[in-house]
Amino acid sequence: MTANLLAHAPHLFCCGIARSGAYNRTLTPFGFQSEDRTLWEATNTYMEMSPFMAADKIEKPILLIHGEEDNNPGTLTMQSKHFFNALKGHGALCRLVILPYESHSYSARESIMHVLWEMDRWLQKYCAPNTSGLNADLDHVKKEDSQKSANLEPKVAASGGEVAEVEELEHGVYFPCCYDDNEI
Fold first, then answer.
1. What's the CA gap between 26 and 38, in Å, rounded?
2. pLDDT beyond 80 at 170
3. Which residues neighbour 133 within 8 Å (Cβ) at sequence distance 6 or greater?
4. Residues in domain Peptidase S9 prolyl oligopeptidase catalytic (predicted)?
5. Any residues with CB less than 8 A from the CB of 56 and at least 6 apart, and which?
6. Most CB atoms closer than 10 Å: which of 134, 142, 158, 174?
7. Which residue ranges make up each domain of the chain?
8. What is the pLDDT of residues 61-92, one digit of tens each?
9. pLDDT tens digit sequence for 14-38
């Protein structure tokens, strides 16, 4: 869904995060979700529902996360690997994280924490900087509120703790365990 939205409605989002996705529906030719027709009966539907076919249209940063041992027949790990390579080939800003020993749903505490860290880092980098207009609006509202009530203190939520930076890979693959880029 995320990849399709970035391909077909890029004006709505500043970035995307897609987990364990099915990016090329032609790899599931005998149906998917509620589509009962085969690829040969509904070729256009399969093509339109495949973000892989629109990889050249994705201009916003996208983070792909997938379990290395995904056993869901519609979302095998190769879907993310092929989609990542297609995006990279078209110059898209993308990142692929493969979680070792994980299937379609992630269960290891380390994997879950790593996914949360990756998503937070991605959103901080590609979404938070795009809130400058929102911040200007909030500053205006705060000024008005402070004029109305001198005792009004703005409440700020912040996340604590520093996380050591991992090697920066703009167009790279990051494996949280012992894998090399050349294994893709």
1. 9
2. no
3. none
4. 1-127
5. 90
6. 174
7. 1-127
8. 999 999 999 999 899 999 999 999 999 999 99
9. 999 999 999 999 999 999 989 999 9
Q: Which residue is it, tokens 């692929």?
A: 96
How do the residues of the chain divide into helix, strand and coil, expressed in percent and rounded to 5?
45, 10, 45
d(CA 46, CA 28): 9
Domain 1-127 is found in CATH 3.40.50.1820: yes
CB atoms within 10 A of CB 24: 20
CB 105 within 8 A of CB 72: no
Q: Using alpha carbons only, give the angle 165, 171, 172 rounded to the nearest 5 degrees.
A: 65
- What is the maximum span of the chain, computed from C-alpha positions, in angstroms? 69
**Pair 155, 142: CB distance under 8 Å:** no
Q: d(Cα 139, Cα 161) in Å, to the nearest integer? A: 26
| DSSP per-residue codes, 67-116 | ETT---TTS-HHHHHHHHHHHHHTT--EEEEEETT--SS--SHHHHHHHH
